[in-house]
């Protein structure tokens, strides 16, 4: 039934052209359209306006999307090739500075300290069955070398470590631990040639059992070259 | 026309703003590739490309939306896009050289809006409505606000906002009717 209220009537018209009316009501609506010219005109105007507004709104969406797409630039073009190149150079510079000036972190160093300190604390009380005098001497020298390194006395550490490195009966793990500490001591003492030959010796010794971080390997390699260049 | 082209065509004819936006951006990329060749190969410069792309995409969308574009399996979409872009570019060149344009097929680039109202007529009619009318209609149709939100924004009751919207639509419909009868 056609609503009496004006607002309800407009909503009724809108429901019709949006296909929201049930069939029975559509028939009544169409009868009203045929019967009442003024109602027909109102319905026609609302429909025309609705279609035009929808069309304009979609057209606006299209224009906006085209503008978005045209202003969208790939990262390289947005930032600019020059800025990207400068950023790249700065990053490479920072990376080289890090490799050059950051100390080599012997990751297992802390484990070694704990281990050697434990044996050192046992001192003379340790039973003969626990450590041989030779092992005890090794740990003592190794711990002292680590202490010298930590105290910024690489030349003292070198003396200890070179003596340990000459020992024949070291297991591969301890041999490489000594060699890495010795290499580090050479670097701290500005002896790049000795550091280089120690690194070659480590690389030629086969399986690397003493764990050293990849970045620290790069640091060592780079610092040897850097020291050779600057000395 | 490939199945991808067909999907693009359907999305361009969609009323869903998200689908329409994504499809338009895809169409823009394709038109741009074509426009670069046309403009740079025919006395144009880089600064002309974006204008041609914008005009071409809108014209293509209007053609598709109005049904003037016929889907043909044997005609690739790019060929049609190239045709529209070329005609648009030739028109631009002719306008620049102030020569009369007689031999171009306008039906390729001009498309009627709903019920044969041209877009410019619709925009003109909308501009002739009062500011509040434009605001209500834009909020509802452009921005997608619900009538409750529009009423709150304008400090009216919901019924008052609805009455305003319908009156504005009736006025717009009347203006469009009189434009159509003038032609």
Characterise this structure.
The complex is a heterodimer of chains A (231) and B (183). Chain A is mainly α and 231 residues long. Chain A folds into three domains: 6-71; 76-102; 109-230. Chain A is 77% helix and 0% strand. Chain A has helices at 6-17, 23-35, 37-71, 75-79, 81-101, 109-122, 133-150, 154-165, 172-188, 192-204, 214-230. Chain A is rod-shaped, with a radius of gyration of 42 Å. Chain B is mainly α and 183 residues long. Chain B folds into two domains: 3-108, Rna Polymerase Sigma Factor, Chain: A (Orthogonal Bundle); 114-182, Winged helix-like DNA-binding domain superfamily/Winged helix DNA-binding domain (Arc Repressor Mutant, subunit A, Orthogonal Bundle). Helices cover 71% and strands 0% of the residues of chain B. Chain B is built from eight helices and no strands. Chain B has helices spanning 3-12, 17-41, 46-66, 77-96, 119-127, 131-142, 147-154, 158-182. In chain B, helix 1 (3-12) crosses helix 2 and helix 3 packs across helix 4. The longest helix of chain B is centred in the N-terminal third of the chain and has 25 residues, at 17-41. The model of chain B has no long low-confidence stretch (mean pLDDT 85). The chains are: A mainly alpha (231), B mainly alpha (183).
Total individual domains of chain A: 3
Radius of gyration of chain B: 20 Å
The share of residues in helices of chain A is over 70%
* Beta fraction of chain A: under 5%
Oligomer: heterodimer
Major sheet size, sense and barrel closure of chain B: none
List the helices and strands and how they pair.
The complex is a heterodimer of chains A (231) and B (183).
Chain A: H1 6-17, H2 23-35, H3 37-71, H4 75-79, H5 81-101, H6 109-122, H7 133-150, H8 154-165, H9 172-188, H10 192-204, H11 214-230
Chain B: H1 3-12, H2 17-41, H3 46-66, H4 77-96, H5 119-127, H6 131-142, H7 147-154, H8 158-182
Helix pairs in contact in B: 1-2, 2-3, 2-4, 3-4, 5-8, 6-8, 7-8
């Amino acid at each position: 039934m056609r609503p009496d209220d004006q607002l309800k009537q407009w909503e009724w018209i809108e429901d019709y052209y949006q296909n929201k009316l049930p069939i029975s009501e559509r028939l009544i609506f169409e009868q009203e359209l045929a019967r009442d010219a003024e109602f027909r005109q109102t319905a026609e105007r609302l429909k025309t306006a609705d279609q035009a507004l929808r069309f304009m709104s979609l057209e606006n969406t299209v224009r906006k999307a085209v503008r978005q797409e045209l202003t969208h630039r790939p990262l390289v073009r947005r930032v600019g090739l020059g800025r990207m190149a400068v950023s790249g150079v700065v990053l490479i510079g920072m990376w080289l500075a890090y490799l050059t000036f950051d100390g080599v972190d012997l990751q297992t160093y802390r484990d070694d300290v704990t281990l050697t300190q434990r044996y050192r604390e046992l001192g003379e009380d340790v039973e003969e069955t626990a450590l041989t005098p030779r092992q005890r001497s090794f740990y003592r020298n190794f711990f002292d070398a680590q202490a010298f390194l930590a105290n910024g006395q690489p030349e003292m550490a070198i003396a200890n470590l070179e003596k340990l490195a000459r020992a024949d009966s070291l297991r591969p793990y301890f041999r490489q631990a000594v060699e890495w500490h010795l290499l580090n001591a050479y670097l701290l003492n500005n002896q790049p040639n000795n550091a280089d030959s120690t690194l070659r010796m480590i690389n030629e010794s086969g399986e690397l059992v003493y764990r050293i971080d990849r970045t620290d390997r790069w640091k060592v390699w780079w610092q040897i070259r850097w020291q050779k260049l600057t000395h | 026309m490939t199945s991808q082209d067909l999907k693009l065509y359907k999305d361009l004819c969609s009323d869903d703003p998200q689908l329409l936006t994504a499809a338009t951006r895809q169409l823009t990329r394709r038109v741009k590739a074509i426009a670069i060749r046309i403009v740079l190969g025919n006395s144009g410069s880089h600064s002309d490309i974006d204008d041609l792309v914008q005009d071409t995409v809108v014209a293509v969308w209007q053609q598709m939306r109005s049904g003037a574009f016929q889907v043909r399996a044997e005609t690739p979409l790019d060929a049609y896009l190239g045709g529209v872009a070329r005609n648009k570019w030739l028109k631009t060149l002719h306008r620049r050289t102030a020569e009369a344009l007689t031999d171009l097929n306008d039906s390729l680039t001009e498309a009627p809006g709903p019920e044969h109202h041209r877009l410019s007529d619709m925009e003109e009619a909308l501009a002739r409505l009062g500011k509040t009318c434009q605001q209500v209609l834009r909020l509802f149709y452009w921005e997608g606000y619900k009538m409750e939100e529009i009423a709150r924004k304008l400090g009216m009751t919901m019924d008052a906002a609805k009455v305003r919207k319908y009156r504005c639509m009736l006025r717009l419909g009347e203006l469009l009717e009189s434009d159509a009868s003038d032609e």
